[in-house]
Amino acid sequence: MDLLDSIQSELQRLEQELIIQLKSRVPVAFEIGAHIMNSGGKRIRPQLAIIAARMGGYTGLDAIKLSGAIECIHTATLLHDDVVDTADTRRGRPSANTLWSNEMCVLGGDFILAKAFSALTSIKNLRILEIVSRATERLSEGELFQMANIGNLDLTEQDYLQVITDKTAVLMEAACRGGAIIGGLDRNKEEALAQFGFSLGIAFQMTDDVIDYRSDKETMGKTPCKDIQEGKLTLPLIAALKTADEPERARVVTMIREKQISDDNLEWVRDFVERRGGVQATLEAGRSYLELGAGHLKIFPDSEEKRALMRLAERILHRTY
């Protein structure tokens, strides 16, 4: 049994903590939160917080509270994302905004964010509160920057990195850093774990963006090539456009402007990002970030926890949904 299996008891405590954090005097607030919390998420961010705390020998309740708060923040963004993107499914199930109204889901997301910060204050560590607050602020900035660039075919790789840094990497970084603080690790080890989480977050999002082009609705639980239909340029498409000829570029422009993809265009754009090297370039970039993250862990001696982080990283890179 590896550590990812052995922390199941802590993950069960996390599920109980999430129920506590989602409790409300208003039943629908709990119902909306419970619906999306139970929609098949992998709990990657909570696992990072729990393992980081265990790197310092800590297995107490504060790590569970932190991991629950991190997961609540992530969940609130998913609720808001589904409203912004007018999504009808989330991980193969009806999205919350198809069961409740958009307005209810926005307010439900606000409620979950508020509960997350209530949980964070109960840890009674101002530094952790500051770290997670800043990560949440940057997460919002990333969402806004991406929305401001919908349909922008001049989006650069650097712009893309800014988006995924803020939308994904900083929250994983905060999970690792917060866990390290709770575990009582020194500043060098804290920074090493934080940089591992950051690199993992970049690789995670790059893999996710490849999956959007490679997978199918049955596997992903959502429509493939959703990003391009929403006018969002991610690295597979940005890299492919670098070597595209004029007819190919014109076809992409038309698809983004129309915001609908026929079956023919769906197959064409999948072939396009593969043939022009966009998928391969993104996978290679993700792998390089994972290698960078692994390098940050060299400061730690071999342990179950360290091996668990590396296995978690490999699972993320090779996932298909």
UniProtKB/TrEMBL annotation:
List, alphabetically, the Gene3D superfamilies matched. Answer: Farnesyl Diphosphate Synthase
Superkingdom = Bacteria
* N-terminal signal peptide: none
Q: Name one GO biological process term.
A: isoprenoid biosynthetic process
Q: Which UniProt keywords apply?
A: Magnesium, Metal-binding, Transferase
Say if the entry is tagged with keyword Methyltransferase: no
Instruction: Check the record and name the InterPro entries matching this protein.
Output: Isoprenoid_synthase_dom_sf (IPR008949), Polyprenyl_synt (IPR000092), Polyprenyl_synt_CS (IPR033749)
Q: One matching Pfam family, short form? A: polyprenyl_synt
In Gene Ontology terms, what is one molecular function of this protein?
A: metal ion binding
State if Transferase is listed as a keyword.
Answer: yes
Q: Which cofactor does it need?
A: Mg(2+)
Q: Which family does it belong to?
A: Belongs to the FPP/GGPP synthase family.
Instruction: Indicate what this protein is called per its UniProt record.
Output: Polyprenyl synthetase family protein
List the source organism: Desulfomonile tiedjei
Instruction: Supply the source organism's classification.
Output: Bacteria, Pseudomonadati, Thermodesulfobacteriota, Desulfomonilia, Desulfomonilales
